[in-house]
């Protein structure tokens, strides 16, 4: 098929996979076919599209599935191919071409990347269902990263999992997002937080945005939330207020209105 034979939806899915790196059929269904009358219909429509893009050589799926084979096509994990990147590049010169690794990525890497994709999906679903929220920016890695210098002059890179800007009526909410899956030690969590403190002290973000974003840790459960919250308050002294820890179940209510909205939902 020639590039001009693809639909706008096809191109949107390719653009998204270029940014997010991985997404399941189910996630693509929620993003691009939310107008379907049933979730099952949305999945069928997403599957039809991805299978067509697969035959055209523009996307591929990993051998490993999320949720097992019994989940069927909804469990496929999709990625854009080099051919897909070339198609985007033919329409948008800002697209960077990169050769795809022929090896299967580690399970941990895939699950972490899909967790970031899930946060984007839930963000968009929350915005769609709200009459007061507008999604201004959602940056995946590496566009979410920030360069700065330590006080010693050593160059550093802060690597948030994502960066989010929401407009909530007349207010703008800015977030650095860190997705935790209980696989890292608490000492490593604290060390990551210390890098945010270093970046905060550089003043770069404040000069560019006039505010420093909330650093939002999104964790699997209340036990992990309590453990990370205690570690941050114990180790980071006066800077602990830069950080907020919530569970994934709390995320949608949180971005609707922060702590106040979260407390109302309990």
TrEMBL record:
Top-level taxon: Bacteria
Record-linked Pfam families: Replic_Relax
InterPro entries: Replic_Relax
Name listed for the protein in its UniProt record: Replication-relaxation
Organism in which the protein naturally occurs: Streptococcus moroccensis
């Amino acid at each position: 098929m020639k590039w001009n034979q693809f639909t706008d939806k096809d191109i949107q899915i390719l653009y998204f996979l270029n940014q997010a790196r991985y997404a399941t059929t189910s996630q693509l269904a929620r993003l691009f076919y939310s107008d379907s009358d049933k979730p099952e219909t949305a999945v069928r429509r997403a599957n039809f599209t991805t299978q067509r893009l697969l035959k055209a050589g523009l996307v591929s799926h990993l051998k490993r599935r999320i949720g097992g084979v019994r989940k069927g096509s909804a469990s496929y994990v999709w990625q854009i191919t080099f051919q897909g990147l070339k198609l985007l590049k033919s329409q948008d010169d800002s697209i960077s071409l990169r050769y795809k690794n022929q090896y299967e990525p580690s399970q941990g890497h895939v699950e972490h990347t899909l967790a970031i994709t899930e946060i984007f999906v839930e963000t968009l679903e929350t915005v769609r269902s709200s009459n007061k929220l507008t999604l201004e920016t959602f940056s995946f890695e590496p566009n979410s990263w920030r360069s700065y210098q330590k006080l010693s002059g050593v160059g550093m890179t802060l690597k948030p999992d994502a960066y989010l800007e929401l407009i909530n009526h007349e207010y703008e909410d800015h977030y650095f997002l860190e997705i935790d899956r209980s696989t890292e030690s608490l000492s490593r969590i604290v060390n990551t937080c210390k890098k945010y403190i270093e970046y905060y002290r550089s003043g770069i973000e404040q000069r560019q945005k006039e505010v420093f974003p909330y650093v939002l840790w999104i964790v699997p459960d209340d036990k992990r939330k309590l453990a990370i919250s205690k570690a941050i308050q114990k180790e980071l002294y006066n800077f602990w207020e830069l950080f907020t820890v919530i569970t994934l179940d709390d995320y949608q209510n949180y971005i609707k209105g922060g702590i106040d909205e979260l407390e109302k939902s309990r």
